[in-house]
Design goal:
The chain is of the alpha/beta class. The chain has 11 helices and 16 strands. The strands form 3 sheets. Strands 3, 5, 6, 7, 8, 15 and 16 form a 7-stranded mixed sheet that branches. Strands 11-10-9-12-13-14 form a 6-stranded parallel sheet, sandwiched between helices. It has a 3-stranded antiparallel sheet with strand order 2-1-4, with no helix packed on it. Helix 6 links the parallel strand 9 and strand 10.
């Protein structure tokens, strides 16, 4: 009983001697281009009663991070200096007094959009425990740091937004990116036949290696013709990670009664069509969601392509790489 009480009462104060007072963080002091991201020395955040403090090993870098850099008003907690980054992985350094299920030393990953105490481009981040998951067995912190947001977005698009069933045909539009590369693998896990759109010969071979049944160039290829070869009566569904005219061509390939899903942030959004179900969704983080993601990761023997990695001090270069486009997989920051 005494041991149980000791664990329950573990708090920031009991761990403070093992955690420094300050940390390095890539933050912005104003909105702007990548050049406004600079290395700061900031106080290590103190976790609230319902939060955990994570010593960050790897942080993901994505287009939505760049969007926050340009438009910090997109998030509620936009006080300067604003530490960027919505996801990452590391080791728990301390837990709040009301936290259960986690302890210092646990390897974890997390997705927290608009995090109250700042983002993951830092040596430490304090995150609500409800938005944290245990890293799957045998997965490195480097890989886990790349998939907090992308993994949840991919599996929830396949399972929750589209409800993909074995034998269905699916176009994954933008399949070579950080989310799409995972969605291809989860779709195959669920038994779908996948037509992937990707640009360039390198993009096509990349998504083929991940399991796509067929590939078409999303910018220049005949998407409808490629879809008819896979599904002569039209494909069942489209999962879109890019918008515009090419997405509309994907919708042209749908059968009557087909369905479309896309995460918030895809622009332009697909236009409404008679008889077609269109769902916009946001990734949801939570204990159950991370557990389901972990099961899918293990079952799919998930490959996590890392396109490029940068040290924390080069966070601006990492965002420049993301904004340049044609990223096959994920860009990450190596914090430790």
């Amino acid at each position: 009983m005494a041991a149980t009480v000791a664990v329950a009462l573990f708090s920031w104060q009991t761990a403070v001697t093992a955690v420094p007072q300050t940390m390095r963080a890539a933050a912005i002091d104003k909105a702007g281009g990548p050049e406004v991201i600079t290395l700061h020395t900031l106080p290590v955040p103190r976790p609230a009663a319902d939060e955990v403090l994570i010593a960050v090993h790897t942080a993901g870098v994505a287009v939505w991070d760049a969007s926050v850099r340009v438009h910090p008003e997109e998030i509620t907690h936009s006080r300067f200096p604003l530490v960027l980054g919505t996801d990452g992985a590391g080791v728990i350094a301390a837990v709040g007094s009301q936290v259960s299920g986690f302890k210092p030393g646990d390897q974890v990953y997390s997705y927290s959009w608009d995090n109250p105490q700042g983002g993951f481009y830092a040596e430490y981040v304090a995150v609500p425990a409800k938005l944290v998951g245990h890293v799957p067995p045998r997965m490195s912190l480097r890989d886990a740091g790349a998939i907090g947001t992308t993994g949840l977005t991919a599996i929830q698009g396949i399972d929750d937004a589209l409800h993909i069933k074995p034998g269905e045909t699916l176009i994954i539009h933008g399949a070579a990116g950080g989310v799409g590369s995972l969605a291809v693998q989860f779709a195959k896990l669920r038994g779908a036949r996948v037509l992937a759109t990707a640009s360039g010969e390198d993009g096509a071979s990349f998504v083929k290696r991940l399991g796509a049944d067929a590939v078409v160039d999303g910018r220049q290829g005949d998407i409808v013709a490629a879809a008819r070869q896979l599904a002569p009566q039209g494909v069942d569904a489209v999962l879109a990670f890019a918008g515009g005219d090419s997405l509309e061509r994907c919708l042209d390939a749908l059968r009557a009664g087909g369905r479309v899903a896309f995460p918030s942030g895809v622009r332009p959004e697909p236009k409404a069509r008679t008889g077609i179900s269109i769902v916009r969704y946001d990734a949801i983080a939570g204990h159950e969601e991370f557990e389901r993601l972990n099961l899918a990761i293990i079952a799919a023997k998930l490959q996590i392509p890392i396109a490029a990695e940068y040290p924390l001090a080069d966070a601006a270069k990492a965002q420049e790489r993301v904004e340049a486009g044609h990223v096959l997989g994920k860009v990450v920051l190596q914090i430790r």
